[in-house]
Each structure stands twice: as C-alpha cells, then as structure tokens.
Write a structure and sequence with these properties.
Layout (H helix, E strand, L loop, with lengths): L1 H55 L1 E3 L4 E5 L2 E7 L7 E9 L2 H5 L7 E12 L4 E7 L3 E2 L6 H8 L3 E11 L5 E5 L1 H4 L9 H4 L12 E7 L3 E12 L6 E13 L18 E6 L8 E6 L11 H5 L10 E5 L5 H12 L2 H6 L6 E4 L16 E6 L6 E2 L2 E4 L4 E10 L2 H13 L13 H19 L20 H7 L31 H11 L5 H15 L30 H22 L8 H22 L5 E3 L11 E3 L2 H16 L3 H4 L10 E2 L6 E2 L2 H16 L2 H13 L11 H12 L1 H4 L6 H21 L42 H20 L5 H18 L4
Parallel strand pairs: 7-13, 15-16, 15-17, 17-20
Antiparallel strand pairs: 1-2, 2-3, 3-9, 4-5, 4-12, 5-6, 6-8, 8-9, 10-11, 11-12, 13-14, 18-20, 19-20, 21-22, 23-24
Helix pairs in contact: 7-10, 9-15, 14-15, 15-18, 16-20, 18-22, 22-23, 22-24, 23-24
Length: about 850
C-alpha cells in the first residue's frame, strides 16, 4: 500500500515539473519577444528621430556628418570611427585689444590633445577618452597588458546618443556644450592662455561648423570677464577647434641624435627582453616621401618630387609689398631639400579662387599669419602627431612690428658700412630683404629645426671682414637658425656687402639628416650615423644648443654674437658703435620732428654695447660643452683657455669697469636722453643712472656664484698640474681690484664715475655674499634629483638649456664664500689706510664704504 502511494506521488511530481518547464519556456519566449519588440520599437523611434532631425535642420557631409538645427549642432559619428584616434587642435582666431596687448594673437595654437570616441549601447551614450600616446610595446609581449593598464585613457566627456542613422551604422550626439564654453573638455582656452576663470555661456556661442573628409572645423565666440584692480572688462575670444583624424598607422619615427638640433617628442618603449625601459626622442618633421614609382630613381640619387610637398599659404591680410619677400624666404629652403633628394619639396603661395575652402584656421592649411600688433617678433610653431613626431600643420605668426626690430638691428649693426641702413625709414626693397631673412628663419622652425646658437662660432672673426669670404659663404654664420643677425664686424674700409644671415651649410646638412628617405630602418640608422660621423670634427656642422640667456655656460652658443673670438668681434663692434654715436643726430634728422627717433636709436646703441659686454663676459669661467659619444675621441667638457679668459677680463676693465664716456656723455644729451617705449609713453634714462645700472649688472654676473664655482672646478680638475694655464678666482679678483681701486692706491681724488664703480663693486660683493647665508629650505639642499621617472611632456622650451649641470648646491660651504669675504676684507684694509686721502667727496665716499663693509662682515648671518 505504501509502495503504491509512493509511485503515485512520483508521477504527480514529474507531471508538475513538466508543466512548470513548459510555463517557464513560454515565459522566456514571451520575454524575448517583448525585448525584441522593445528593441525594434527603440530602433524605429531612433531612426524616426534621425529623419525628423534631418527634416528640421541642415546636413553637411564629411568626416562626421554635421546636422545643424537652429543653434544646435549634432555630430553623426560612424561606428567605423569609434576607437580611432583624433587630434583636437585649438587656436585663437580673433582677439580684442586687451588680449592683443598681452601678446596673444590670431593663429596661435594654445592646446592640443588626442581623443577617441567609444559607443556604449547599454547606457546609450558616447564616451570620449583622452590619452598621451607616447608609450609603446610589442603587441605579443606579456608586458603589453601591463602597459595598457598603467597608461590607460581618461574619460574627459560623455554625450547622450540622440538618435541613429537609417541603417544604424552611426550615432548622433549633440555637441554644443564642448564648443560654447559650458564644458572645458575639448577646449580650455582661458586656462591655456593664462586668464583662468570661466566662460560666460550666455555671452558665448558657436559661430560656424565645417566638415571635410579628414577634419572638422568649429568656430566659437567665447566671452569671459577680466578684472585687474579695476572694473571688470568683458573679453570675447574667437577660437577655432579642429578635430583631425590621425592615420591608423603613424609615420615611421626618426630618433634624435643630440649632435644635431631638432625639436622632439618623448616616447617610452617597453618590451619583455629589456632590463630597463628605453626612452627615446622622436624628431618632429613632415612626412616627406618619394612616390612609389620614383623610389628606385630616388635611391639612385636622382632628384624627385615628394608624394606630398610642404605647402605654406600667405595670409591675405599681409601687405602686398612684403608677400613676395616672404615667399622667397620659404623657397630659399629648396636647395636644402634638394640635398635630401627632393625637388619642389617646399612651396609658398597666395591663396587663389581655386582654393575655395581656404581658411587660415583650418589645419589642412599651413599659413604664414600676419598679426596686426605692437609686438615686435615672429615665431614658427607646428602641430605635431605625438605618436610619431609627424608635423601635421605649421603656423608662422608674423607680427607687424617685427620690422621695428629689423630696422634697429640693421641701423646699429650695419649703418657704418651700409648707407641704405641709416635713415628713420628704409626703402621697401631694403626692408624686404630683411623680411626674407626672418621668413627663412621662422620657416626653418616649422621644419622641426631648433636654434643653432653655436653656428656662428665656425667663422674666424677676421674672415667676416673679407669681401671674398662673405660673398662665398653668403651669410654671417653656417646656419640661419643661429641668431647671428647682421655683420657688425666688417669695417667701412672692407667693402663687405654680403652682410645678411642666409641659409647655410649646417642648415642643408640638418635637412638632409632629418628628411632623407630610406627604404628600411637598418639602412637609415647606418647612413644617418655615417653622415654625422663624416662631419663631427668640422666646425661648420657644429650644433650649439640654446641656453638660458641669464646663465650661459658655453660661450660658443650665444645669441646675436659673431665669430670665434668674442673679444676681437666686440672690439670691431665698438669701433662701429662709435661711428653710430657720432652720426645719431645726423641719421635721425627730420625737420620739425621731435627727438624721439634720436633717443630710440641712442638707447639701441647702448643696448648693443651691453650685448658685446655679455658676449665677452661669458668666456670667463666658461666651459665648452660637447655632445660626445663613445669612440669619437672628444672631451665632453673643455674649459675656455686661460688666455681667452684674461683677454675677456681686460676687455671688461677697459670698456665697462671704465665707463665709456663717448657712449654715455656726448652731444646727443643736449637734445635727448636715451628713450625706451613703455605702456605710458617714451621712458627716459639719464646717463649716470643708466651707466650705473648696466655696469652693476655686468659686475654682479661677473662674480656670480656659478661662474666662480666653474673656475674653482676647473682649478681642481686641471690635469698635469699646469697651474700657469689656469685663470683662477684669485686672478680675477686681483685684476678687477687693481683697476677699480687704482685711483685710491695712488692717493687721488676720485671722479664721480670712479666712486660709482667702487660702490657698485663693493655692493655686488656684499649682496651676493649675504645671499649665500640666507635661510635655506632643507628641501633645496638636495645635491641631485632623486631617480624620478622622466616626464611625459612636450619638448623643452628653447630658452632653457636642456643639459643640466649642477654646480650650485650648498654654496655656503664652497670657496666662493671665502673668496668674496677675503676680497671685502682686502678692500676694507685699503680704505682704512687711504680714508684721509683725496678731496672731501672722496673721503666721504671712503667712510661710507668702510661702514657698509664692516656691517656686512659683522652680519650675524
């Protein structure tokens, strides 16, 4: 009985399970059907929304189709472009006066970033992520998984998917917020130009949108409020954002050799076989390649046209008389690219009617932009693909007032030997040739070339006085990328006429090294190394890195110097400066005009004198810094010879420690003081004040701690005990002391200028000694930096030397302290001995100096 009941129960359970499984299956099918129905409805709704959007607005087809409905902007992004890399390039396209005065102008590129779009079908959103694509590893290596996790992208923006296109192969997003100033994700103009604050969205709008096969251009008017101690000012900036599709496969990079000067992008390389990460620098350059059908001819040495030449457009707002000179300055580089195997590689032209899409702010066009501004400068930046160093586009900014600098340089440096360079205004032809030189220099930067401040050191100074040599070389240095300026060495009797900087031998060599095409990496490495090796001992091909102007170590690489002997070049320069001073009133004469031009030329002449002084000064304690490699048999550090340092010191004693009265006290002062422009008008400098300040500056730098420490290092490191070949700190103090106190030693009454020099000298020693004992943060006492990872950043700004040499830590316990205090004690003893000699003014002067020195030496610090 019990058994029968059990069987019946089992049947019942099985039947029940069967029924439940059918119900479940039915329920699941129903849900799937409902889900499918909902998805279908959603798709229908989305595509219906797309049709309605098109009906309401206008459609522009391109990289992303752009739909505009009144003031709303929509991007239609194809699924095929999801995950691809784009470069956002932001530029100024309009600026008001307040920004213009701050040195910011149309055409300036202030922010770039790499972004990618990702579709999220679950959240119905498009995520935008940004990355620094400067890290690489082989796809199949195990470490690659770690590389991806440790250098991942960051989310910078998100958009709702508004609708889909008719076949659901693209999504539509509304993008107003990233271009009208509400969000900073795509364009943070205020932070990047140093204004800070936020955009006033109610006073900002999207002005225009254009789309092309490879990029999108969005123009906006963004307004902010600026207040600096006064009422708030409304400032509206015209900005242009380009979204550029980057190639799937980046250009093959070329790696930097530091013996040649190129801008670079840092890149880190990881792989499984390493014992340490490798950091390399990719030079920035255009993708210049022969056409496939021309490769064989190219490799045989025939000149061929590149697949895609480098084209520059002249801004239509450029005054007509200067356009051809700017074009000629670009085309002067043709010979350099021919050295690299390419003809017609560089083209400059004015836009024509056939360039229907031409837009200065469009990254498809490299433009030499002419900026109406009081700023006197020009610059040549580039937009670079950070993955490879490929230059995508270049914008040369040409400020209108650069001509004021050219006028001043030519007048002061070449006026004595060139009658065309003497008037208040030059002929258009003469100014045009100067514009051509600047055009060539700035275009050189857009090819990736850095300044080569050491190029001018290749020429013997006296060769710059040779008509035959200067005509043969064609310029003042082997590189137009040096700041060699004009030939101030040549004298009127020399008959030299080739006095303008031009593209030289180094420039051609640098372009060949950077742009010659090679079919494979192995050949490229071998040939490039051989090219540098062939020229490494020839000064014509020397690359001298730009240094911080206030901390020159290598005197070969200075701005605006000429020749291989700064003392001799500056002495020739002074002869010409005396001729300028003698003619300032004549050259600037203009009936019924003020003496404004006279005062301006006068202060420019004084500035040139100070420039010569610094060229000479930097040889004292100077060190030649050579970029060396194993096997080249070169020394990395070569102190400037003792002979040269003595010559340099004697020059300063003659021309600075003894103030040149021909320069500071002459008939010009009957008419005007030296004048310098300022925001409130011309600013006058009295000769006593100006000469005192400029002399003090030279003395302070002469006895800077870093300079004296280099001299001490040299003394310690001198080989073979050749002490007679040294110029020591003691030698320097002895020479200067004898000159500064010569009148005191001879019991003479001192002139105003002699007393001024003594005060400057003593004050320099007191101030610099006191600084050695200022309270120092413990963190600043580090001898060297810790082993930090290198920073992922753009190339170092050129006004700072990339090579860092630490000589300044713990200066309080160096010989510098003893030397400076020793000299102060020596001066004190002399003054106490002579305090009752000379006239009343001299005795008062001695008493003052004694009090100052005693107070400084008894300073409890």
């Amino acid at each position: 009985m019990k058994k029968k009941t059990l069987i019946s129960s089992t049947k019942y359970v099985l039947v029940l399970l069967f029924l439940l499984s059918n119900v479940t299956a039915f329920s699941q099918k129903k849900k799937q059907k409902e889900t499918k129905t909902e998805t279908t409805k959603d798709t229908i709704a989305k595509t219906k929304g797309y049709a309605e959007l098109l009906k309401k607005g206008s459609l522009k087809k391109g990289l992303f189709n752009v739909i505009q409905v009144k003031t709303d902007i929509y991007f239609e992004i194809p699924d095929s472009l999801m995950g691809r890399e784009f470069l956002v390039v932001n530029k100024l396209s309009q600026v008001p006066m307040q920004v213009n005065e701050a040195g910011l102008n149309k055409g300036m590129n202030y922010e770039n970033k790499v972004i990618s779009f990702y579709k999220d079908t679950v959240a119905k959103k498009v995520w935008v992520k940004s990355s620094l694509p400067k890290v690489s590893s082989p796809e199949t290596d195990a470490i690659t998984a770690s590389v991806k996790d440790n250098f991942s992208e960051s989310i910078i923006e998100v958009f709702d998917i508004e609708t889909k296109n008719s076949d659901s192969t693209s999504v539509v997003i509304k993008v107003n917020k990233v271009f009208d100033g509400k969000q900073k994700s795509f364009n943070d103009v205020l932070s990047n130009i140093g204004f800070g604050g936020s955009v006033k969205s109610d006073l900002s709008y999207i002005e225009a949108v254009k789309t092309f096969p490879g990029n999108i251009v969005v123009k906006s008017q963004l307004t902010t409020s600026v207040s600096e101690g006064g009422p708030a000012l409304s400032v509206t900036l015209g900005v242009t954002s380009n979204i550029v599709l980057l190639d799937k496969v980046p250009m093959k990079p070329r790696f930097l050799d530091k013996r040649i000067g190129y801008f670079t992008e840092k890149h880190w390389y990881f792989n499984d076989n390493q014992h340490a990460m490798v950091e390399k620098e990719l030079i920035t350059r255009w993708r210049l390649e022969p056409k496939k059908e021309d490769e064989a001819r190219y490799l045989k040495g025939e000149l061929v046209e590149p697949k895609k030449p480098i084209v520059y457009y002249i801004d239509p707002s450029t005054p007509k008389q200067w356009r051809q000179y700017i074009i000629d300055g670009v085309h002067d580089w043709q010979a350099a690219f021919e050295r690299a195997g390419f003809k017609n590689a560089v083209i400059a032209k004015e836009p024509t009617e056939s360039d229907t899409d031409f837009d200065i702010d469009d990254v498809r066009y490299s433009v030499i932009t002419y900026a109406a501004s009081p700023k006197a400068n020009a610059m040549g930046p580039s937009v670079v693909d950070p993955r490879s160093g490929e230059i995508i586009e270049a914008d040369i900014i040409w400020w209108h007032n650069v001509m004021t600098s050219l006028h001043s340089w030519m007048r002061i440096q070449t006026g004595p030997i060139d009658p065309k360079a003497r008037g208040n205004k030059f002929s258009d032809t003469h100014m045009g040739e100067a514009i051509r030189f600047v055009s060539s220099h700035e275009v050189g930067h857009t090819f990736g070339l850095k300044h080569n401040m050491g190029a001018s050191f290749a020429f013997e100074v006296d060769s710059l006085r040779s008509k035959v040599f200067t005509e043969k070389m064609g310029g003042t240095a082997p590189s137009i990328m040096d700041y060699a300026r004009y030939n101030y060495v040549a004298q009127p009797e020399d008959g030299v006429t080739a006095i303008t900087p031009k593209i030289g031998e180094y420039d051609k060599y640098a372009i060949e090294w950077g742009y010659r095409w090679y079919p494979n990496e192995s050949e490229e490495k071998t040939k490039l190394s051989a090219l540098i090796g062939k020229h490494q001992n020839d000064p014509m091909y020397f690359y001298g890195e730009q240094q911080d102007g206030g901390a020159i170590i290598d005197p070969r690489s200075q701005s605006e110097d000429l020749g291989n002997d700064a003392v001799k070049a500056s002495e020739y320069g002074l002869k010409n400066l005396k001729r300028v001073v003698d003619n300032i009133l004549t050259w600037t004469y203009e009936k019924d005009a003020s003496y404004y031009e006279t005062g301006k030329l006068y202060i420019g002449t004084i500035g040139q004198w100070q420039l010569y002084n610094r060229h000479v000064l930097n040889n004292i304690g100077g060190v030649y810094l050579n970029t060396t490699v194993h096997g080249d048999h070169k020394s990395s550090y070569v102190p400037v010879s003792a002979t040269m340092q003595r010559k340099a010191t004697d020059y300063l004693l003659r021309n600075v420690i003894t103030i040149p009265q021909w320069l500071f006290f002459n008939p010009i002062l009957d008419k005007t003081n030296p004048l310098k422009d300022s925001p409130v008008g011309p600013y006058e400098y009295t000769p006593y004040t100006l000469s005192r300040e400029l002399q003090y500056g030279i003395l302070y730098d002469l006895f800077s701690d870093e300079r004296l420490l280099r001299m001490i290092e040299n003394e310690l490191y001198q080989r073979n005990g050749a002490k007679d070949k040294l110029f020591t700190v003691s030698d320097l103090f002895k020479r200067v002391h004898q000159q500064v106190f010569s009148g005191t030693i001879q019991n003479k009454s001192l002139s105003i200028l002699e007393r001024m020099t003594q005060k400057n000298y003593v004050d320099v020693l007191i101030v610099s000694t006191n600084k050695l004992f200022e309270k120092t943060d413990a963190k600043k006492l580090m001898f060297t930096k810790t082993l930090n990872m290198p920073m992922l950043c753009n190339h170092v700004h050129e006004d700072q030397m990339i090579r860092n040499i630490n000589q300044s830590s713990l200066k309080r316990v160096t010989e510098v302290t003893s030397e400076k205090k020793g000299e102060l004690n020596k001066v004190l003893q002399l003054l106490k001995l002579k305090k009752n000699t000379g006239n009343l003014e001299t005795r008062n002067h001695y008493s003052d100096l004694i009090n100052r020195i005693e107070k400084a030496l008894n300073n409890p610090l």
